[in-house]
Every structure is written in structure tokens, then in C-alpha cells.
Structure prediction request, 198 residues.
Amino acid sequence: LNYEPGEFIFKQGASPNGFICLKEGKVKIIQLAHNGKEQIIDLKSPPDTLGIRALSTNSKYQSSAVALDLVKICLIPSKEFFQILDSCPSIYKELFSYIGKLLVRADYKLVSLTQKTLSARLADTLLLLQETMGKDLEGYIDIQLKRSELAQQSNMTTSNVIRSLSEFKRKKLIDIKGRKIKIIYKETLANISMFDKN
Prediction:
């Protein structure tokens, strides 16, 4: 299945109808707050899965998936997917390992958002974005986010993100071109992430 930028792959509150593999393109996972405001909770790039929690717990989607660019997915209907799992234990093991890694990442992000300083949180966000989104031909993180979206990812205010980015740039840890960000000294950002705690 193919999706254009801005199209919903699935919507919050809907029931999953299969296992979704992200083959091409980038996807943002969002939740709508009670006031209708959109909150980015994750970003995905291939190869990855979408909506695995709802499928594995037989529940409704707690978030929505939106294509950021041209996206191609592979959808395996639920019945066929569970038949595959029953007939191929090795896939069960791979899926179990994958879900475990997601839980470790979620735990790490929770610690980052609640226990680290602003600089450490933003360093975490930039490092994670480069890891998951990759780099473009010029070495910039291969996704362009608004400062407000970076703030959501880092549990910061937009003004604090702007201030921290300026500080990172002043120290020549990153380069900024509009919404594009390039990490220049990855190890230094990792040190800030690790040691700059409350």
C-alpha cells in the first residue's frame, strides 16, 4: 500500500486489521490530546513496524500514524499473520526480541524526559533522531522538524529548544541550516546526554 505525505496510515481509536511493515518513507506517530492538540510521540523509518502494540494486545490504536513523505507499507492481514507465527517459531522469537528493544527504548526515554537537564534531553533527542532517521547526502539528520516538534520530543518549551540549539551551535557541536541539523561531535553530545543530569 502507498501513502502520500500527510495521509493517515491508521487513526487513533481504530482497530488494527493486520501487521504493518514500513518498507519506504518516514512516518510520525501522533496522539491527540483532549484539547485537540497533536503530540508527536515517535518517528519511524524503514525497516520497522507500525501499530504492533495494538495488534499484539488486540486493542484499539492509542495513536495515529501519518506519512511524512511518500510511504510504502506491507500489510499482512491479522489472521494470516497469526497463522505465520503459529507455523514459524523463529519469527515469534524475532518479534519478542523486537518488542523487548522497544520497551528498553521507552524506559530510556522516560528517564531522559523526567530526570535529565534540558541540554541532556535535547542531546538525547538529536542522537535518537540521527539513529532512527539516518543522514542525508550532506550529513544532516534526514528529517526536518519544527522547533516546536523538537520541543515535544524533548519535553521542553520551544524557547528552551531554541536556546539549547544555539548553545550547541556556539560550541560547534552541531550545524544548523533552517530546519536541518547536522551533528558534528557525536561523542560530545553523548557525553552531555550521559553526564549532564539533575
